[in-house]
Design brief:
The complex is a heterodimer of chains A (about 375) and B (about 250).
Chain A (H helix, E strand, L loop, with lengths): L7 H5 L5 E8 L6 E8 L13 E12 L5 E3 L5 E11 L4 E8 L2 E6 L11 E9 L6 H10 L16 E10 H5 L6 E10 L6 E5 L4 H5 L15 H6 L7 H19 L18 H5 L3 E4 L11 H8 L15 H11 L44
Antiparallel strand pairs in A: 1-2, 2-9, 3-4, 3-5, 3-10, 5-6, 6-7, 8-9, 10-11, 10-12
Chain B lengths: L17 H22 L2 H18 L2 H17 L4 H13 L3 H13 L4 H14 L3 H10 L6 H14 L3 H14 L5 H17 L3 H14 L4 H14 L12
Helix pairs in contact in B: 1-2, 2-3, 3-4, 4-5, 4-6, 5-6, 6-7, 7-8, 8-9, 8-10, 10-11, 11-12
Chain lengths: ~375, ~250
């Protein structure tokens, strides 16, 4: 599901396990942008961030190549780094630092510890997981090679919590006044200090768990779990040797999805790559920072670039958008085909259009099949 | 956050504090115990067992291990057709130095389809437990297994050390530390404790003491490291040398 539990390494330590990433203009406040990074799937009340991990957001101006794929201008990237201290026994919370260039913002976890300013606002703490999806039916779809969704479906994430980091900022202050309009964004968890080890990275939903998953149809790497290798790569500069393995897996899986409804939406001759492979390989969200908020914009800028059309929205990803329906519709039926719905259209409690956006954590989350190894000695 | 880097020839990584690690682990254990109690599902029980073993690696409470053992007996009764249940039983029996029971559980697990790499991993543990380090080393080298590289290398290093290949063992252990790619101190604590225990076994209490000190820096309440240090100190006196992976 999305990026929850998305690699062997992340399975062993929820504090490094990124679950979702969101990037959108702040509703009704021109010039202000918001980023939400979620970690720690199935977090219980009392769950804590690691004090040895840097929770990092990387933004870079976008450039569109001759192949019409949007990529990051890595040399011009801006980094927002969030770190936490140890548990404060007196408060039960953690002190946090947000570093952006030379600017450091101090905050504490929880609603009372959030910081609000014209330049940067930040919140961190337990929140309802805003992601929603019928995981069981998606897995069944891949296993049976047929669309297995029902209406209604069953939300596998209903009532669960995550640890959220919410950052709102003035775009001109952080990204510059004379900036390019379109920016890309990726998140990562990495060890603190130098040199730093990247534990996980995340751009779009379901790239690792679905598009790079082992489904027995990748003739190059039939059984290899590529996800931790993928996590090691720089999201803005993927290792060329490893990229070939990802392309092979993406080609194979995308062809499988295209065949689910017996109509070919994405023809590609032998010896070439699937038309969407390069887009997924450049795994980041894409947002036009000059456009107003839109509830639906996921993949809109990527589609505009690939098809030569004008984008209809700001792009990015809003918290309540049904990105799984967008993903399934695009990879099975193309940009303009009839939509596919997984029968789960919203979270139990939707996000609100106001900082910190996400509903408060559920004090009594339901028992879920975690599918997670706990601890590791 | 534990930072041993300035003192280390090969840098030991930063890890999450013990307070945060154990707090998060206890929350997960509570949730898993609840889930297992309600559903009696074997996968829940197996995950609970692994979590409890992680907790035991720090607490070393006999009662915790007793609970784990009771759980594994229940699991094989509940799901006798599930190879994971028998693997869990074998793992705990090997820890408790019950080789016959562990071997029988491994044979059952193999017969009903346990992956050979996982069987090999526990069999190597068992060989070590009965002192056959050569057999354990052969299995560990041949078997890429399911362990992350750092943990696998550190187990190989301990076998090499026990067999007297000290220089090779130190190099392998340094490589294990370099390969450690996680934020949790639990696997690293176990690696360092086993390293110290093996040094003690081969008679170098000074190096054992250094390893145990390193464990305590990551996990101050690590009971077995604390006890081992007390024993080492009473026999050997305090070690004034700086921590380094070579030294550790």
């Amino acid at each position: 599901m999305s990026d929850h539990l998305s690699s062997p390494r992340a399975l062993r330590d929820p504090t490094i396990d990124l679950t979702d990433l969101y990037f959108f203009p702040v509703p009704d406040v021109p010039g202000r942008l918001a980023v939400v990074v979620n970690v720690f799937p199935l977090a219980q009340p009392g769950a804590l961030f690691s004090d040895a991990v840097s929770y990092r957001v990387r933004l870079a101006p976008a450039e569109t190549g001759a192949d019409r794929v949007i990529r990051a201008r890595r040399a011009d990237q801006v980094t927002l780094d969030v770190t936490f201290g140890d548990l404060d026994p007196a408060t039960g919370g953690q002190a946090g630092l947000l570093r952006c260039g030379d600017t450091v913002t101090c905050f504490h976890t929880g609603d009372a510890g959030a910081v609000h300013s014209d330049q940067v606002s930040v919140f961190a703490g337990l929140r309802r997981d805003p992601f929603f999806m019928d995981v069981r039916r998606e897995v069944e779809t891949r296993a049976t090679r047929r669309l297995a969704f029902t209406d209604p479906g069953t939300d596998a994430v209903a009532g669960q919590n995550v640890l959220s980091i919410v950052i709102e900022f003035d775009a001109a202050h952080v990204l510059g006044v004379d900036r390019r309009p379109v920016w890309v964004l990726a998140a990562e968890t990495a060890s603190r200090g130098v040199p730093s080890t990247r534990f996980e990275r995340l751009g779009r939903a379901e790239v690792k768990n679905v598009l790079l998953s082992v489904n027995g149809n990748d003739a190059v790497n039939t059984t290899v779990d590529l996800r931790d290798l993928y996590n090691l790569d720089d999201a803005f500069a993927v290792d060329p040797a490893a990229a070939e393995a990802y392309r092979a897996r993406l080609d194979a899986n995308l062809a499988m999805f295209d065949a689910l409804d017996d109509a070919v939406a994405w023809p590609f001759p032998p010896g070439t790559h699937h038309p969407l492979t390069e887009m997924w390989l450049n795994d980041h969200l894409v947002l036009d920072t000059t456009k107003p908020f839109s509830e639906r914009g996921y993949l809109d800028l990527e589609r505009a670039a690939l098809t030569g059309r004008s984008p209809a929205t700001c792009g990015g990803r809003w918290l309540n958008e049904d990105v799984i329906d967008v993903l399934d519709s695009v990879i099975v039926r193309g940009w303009d085909g009839p939509p596919i719905k997984d029968g789960v259209d919203h979270a139990t409690i939707p996000a609100q259009p106001k900082f910190p956006y996400l509903p408060a954590g559920n004090p009594d989350p339901p028992i879920a099949d975690p599918g997670v190894p706990v601890g590791d000695d | 956050m534990t930072d041993l880097r300035p003192e280390s020839a090969v840098r030991l990584p930063l890890c999450t504090s013990e307070t945060i690690t154990l707090s998060n682990l206890d929350l997960q254990l509570s949730s898993l115990a609840h889930w297992y109690a309600q559903t009696r599902r074997a996968d829940a029980g197996i995950q609970l067992m692994h979590g409890l073993l992680s907790r035991y690696s720090v607490s070393a409470r006999d009662a915790d291990l007793d609970d784990v053992e009771v759980l594994t007996y229940a699991l094989v009764q509940q799901a006798p057709e599930d190879p994971r249940a028998w693997m869990a039983r074998a793992e705990v029996s090997a820890m408790r130095h019950r080789p016959a029971d562990a071997e029988q559980a491994l044979l059952t697990a193999s017969a009903i389809g346990a992956p050979p790499v996982e069987v090999g991993e526990v069999r190597a543990d068992l060989m070590e437990a009965v002192g056959d380090h050569r057999a354990a080393l052969d299995i560990r080298i041949a078997n890429s297994g399911t362990l992350p590289p750092a943990q696998r290398l550190s187990r190989i290093a301990c076998c090499q050390l026990a067999l007297g290949a000290h220089h090779q063992a130190v190099a392998t252990f340094a490589s294990a530390i370099r390969h450690y790619a996680g934020a949790s101190p639990l696997p690293l604590g176990s690696m360092l404790f086993n390293w110290g225990h093996t040094w003690e076994h081969v008679g170098d209490r000074g190096r054992a003491e250094l390893a145990y000190h390193a464990v305590m820096r990551y996990l101050p309440s690590h009971v077995r490291a604390h006890s081992a240090l007390v024993e080492c100190s009473s026999d050997h006196g305090s070690v004034g040398r700086k921590l380094s992976t070579g030294g550790v």
